[in-house]
């Protein structure tokens, strides 16, 4: 039976193509330029390949859409320099990474660790959103957060898309691609928005998906002194419109990331990231009020939200209304 590729309307990131090809040698070469050298072959040589690869980079990460349109076997060996989250949106894939094996489909994504040999078989109708994460960045964030030495770090292969804490995280990655399709990439011009998205995705993996240091989340940490929390708050206030991470805040406060988080939970009933979001919402409200008083018709709510680190406008509007009891547009209309 002839294989059929994923239909155009179902493809994501179509406005950001890297390549399209029906030639397997070209597909192998082009994908290798983005990821790594690998063996790629069709299960049935007579089937028609129809490969689509789209990609958008943000910060140090990149979100990809990849589909081959034919049943293929992919053998990259060890990825070496990057971690890769593979989230199927259609079809199935058989994934082997080290000693683990998973049948991946729209209910089960996978997280590939770079130091374990990987082989895959993608079905003809398999289309995936791939989140590319540099190994150096992931290992540095893991070390900062969990207080461990440098990697490599081992993540559990199966990444549930349903019925687990990781389900909402996986939806966020797919929603990122859909949001780019719907609203473009203007937010990429704002370092704070890019840093917020990167921070959200990396911390989500570290805290929601199982890895070899997950048990450290259950261990108590020493509380920071009040002066350390004051330094953290002062840093947040001074850098609210900048590309700030929790690790940045912890360094400014001269404490570990885990100690900082526990201190904020005890003293402010919030996470450091949640406190930063509160400060940013207050700054945005001040700017909208000032624009309303000045009758400034050139003010863009979208631009201000992006400048203060909100990459998803729907979530920003929800946060704003929950905090102030009105939509941002309502604040802007008040005299």
Search tags:
7-stranded antiparallel β-sheet; disordered N terminus; alpha+beta; 41% helix; Jelly Rolls; single chain; 335 residues
What features would you describe in this structure?
There is one protein chain. The chain contains 11 helices and 12 strands. Helix 3 (166-183) packs antiparallel against helix 4 (191-208). Strand 7 (93-97) and strand 8 form a beta hairpin. A 7-stranded antiparallel β-sheet has the order 1-3-4-11-6-9-12, with helices on both faces. It has a 5-stranded antiparallel β-sheet with strand order 2-5-10-7-8, covered by helices on one side. It is globular, with a radius of gyration of 22 Å. The chain has 2 domains: 8-189, Jelly Rolls; 276-333. Residues 1-5 have low confidence and may be disordered. The chain has 335 residues and is of the alpha+beta class.
Question: How would you summarize the topology of this molecule?
Answer:
Layout: E1 17-21, H1 24-34, E2 39-42, E3 51-58, E4 61-67, E5 72-77, E6 82-90, E7 93-97, E8 100-104, E9 108-112, E10 118-122, E11 127-134, H2 135-146, E12 158-160, H3 166-183, H4 191-208, H5 226-238, H6 246-253, H7 257-268, H8 272-293, H9 301-307, H10 313-324, H11 328-333
Antiparallel strand pairs: 1-3, 2-5, 3-4, 4-11, 5-10, 6-9, 6-11, 7-8, 7-10, 9-12
């Amino acid at each position: 039976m002839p294989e059929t590729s994923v239909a155009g309307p179902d493809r994501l990131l179509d406005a950001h193509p890297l390549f399209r090809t029906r030639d397997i040698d070209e597909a192998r070469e082009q994908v290798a330029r983005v990821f790594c050298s690998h063996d790629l072959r069709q299960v049935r040589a007579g089937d028609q390949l129809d490969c689509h690869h789209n990609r958008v980079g943000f910060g140090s990460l990149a979100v990809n859409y990849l589909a081959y349109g034919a049943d293929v076997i992919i053998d990259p060996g060890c990825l070496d320099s990057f971690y890769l989250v593979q989230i199927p949106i259609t079809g199935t894939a058989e994934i082997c990474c080290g000693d683990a094996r998973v049948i991946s489909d729209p209910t089960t994504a996978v997280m590939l660790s770079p130091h374990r040999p990987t082989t895959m078989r993608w079905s003809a109708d398999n289309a995936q959103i791939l989140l590319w994460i540099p190994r150096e960045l992931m290992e540095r964030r893991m070390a900062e957060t969990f207080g461990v030495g440098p990697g490599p770090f081992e993540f559990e292969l199966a990444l549930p898309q349903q019925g687990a804490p990781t389900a909402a995280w996986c939806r966020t990655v797919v929603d990122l691609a859909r949001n780019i399709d719907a609203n473009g990439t203007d937010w990429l011009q704002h370092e704070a928005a890019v840093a917020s998205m990167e921070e959200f995705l990396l911390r989500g993996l570290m805290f929601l998906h199982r890895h070899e240091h997950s048990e450290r989340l259950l261990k108590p940490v020493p509380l920071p002194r009040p002066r350390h929390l004051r330094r953290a708050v002062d840093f947040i206030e001074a850098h609210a419109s900048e590309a700030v991470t929790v690790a940045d805040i912890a360094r400014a406060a001269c404490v570990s990331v885990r100690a900082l988080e526990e201190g904020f939970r005890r003293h402010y009933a919030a996470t450091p990231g949640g406190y930063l979001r509160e400060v940013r919402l207050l700054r945005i409200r001040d700017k909208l009020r000032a624009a309303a008083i000045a009758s400034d018709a050139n003010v863009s709510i979208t631009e201000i939200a992006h400048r203060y680190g909100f990459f998803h406008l729907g979530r920003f509007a929800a946060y704003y209304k929950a905090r102030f009891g009105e939509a941002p547009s309502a604040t802007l209309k008040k005299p």
